[in-house]
Amino acid sequence: MEITIKSESGEETAQLLEILRPIIEKEWTAVTIPHMSEEVEQYRKRLAAKTKAAMDLKKSQFKAFTGPMYGWDKDENDNLTPNWQEQMVIDWMRNMYYNAKKSANEIAKLLNADKIMGKRGGKWSNNSVIRTIKNPFHDEREKFKKGSE
Fold first, then answer.
1. What domain range includes position 90?
2. Is residue 44 part of a domain?
3. How far apart are CA 142 and CA 120, in angstroms?
């Protein structure tokens, strides 16, 4: 049986195939499965570390590192710049949450009642409010001059 896995990193693909070889070739033993489990976990940790490093690099360069993010706009080169109207909404949400002591659910209801949509046009929920106001990346907007969009 031949299996092909497409990847940008031939080394990573080779490592994964070597880990999975006993399954592919059906060479199961009582020792193989626990050993394979450890190998897969080590591979997962290495991949997670590489992913985090790549995302941190993109963040430091103000490049898109996730899907659409409320408070930020992305240009054709994946450069992020603050969306100042959305940043004002974030400031309002933070004020309501931290100073006025409103719950995230109450804030979501107010946003939805005022027809203020999320980045993809959806409604706000308590979880989306919390993720937005607690996202430390929004503090990076200070590196931009307001109105320099």
1. 72-143
2. yes
3. 24
Q: Are 83 and 72 in contact (CB under 8 A)?
A: yes
Indicate the pLDDT class of residue 43, thresholds 50, 70 and 90: confident
pTM: 0.64
Let me know whether 111 and 139 are in one domain: yes
Non-local (6+) Cβ contacts of 1 within 8 A are 24, 25
Give the number of other CB atoms < 10 A from CB of residue 90. 19
Report the length, in residues, of the chain: 149
79 and 132, same structural domain? yes
Instruction: Report the half-sphere exposure of 75 (CA within 13 A, side-chain side).
Output: 8
| 56 and 76 inside one domain | no
Domain membership flag for residue 149: no
Per-residue pLDDT at 149 exceeds 50: no
Give residue-wise pLDDT tens across range 91-137: 999 999 999 999 999 999 999 999 999 999 999 999 999 999 999 88
148 is a domain residue: no
Name the nearest CA neighbour of 36 among 23, 48, 19, 50.
19
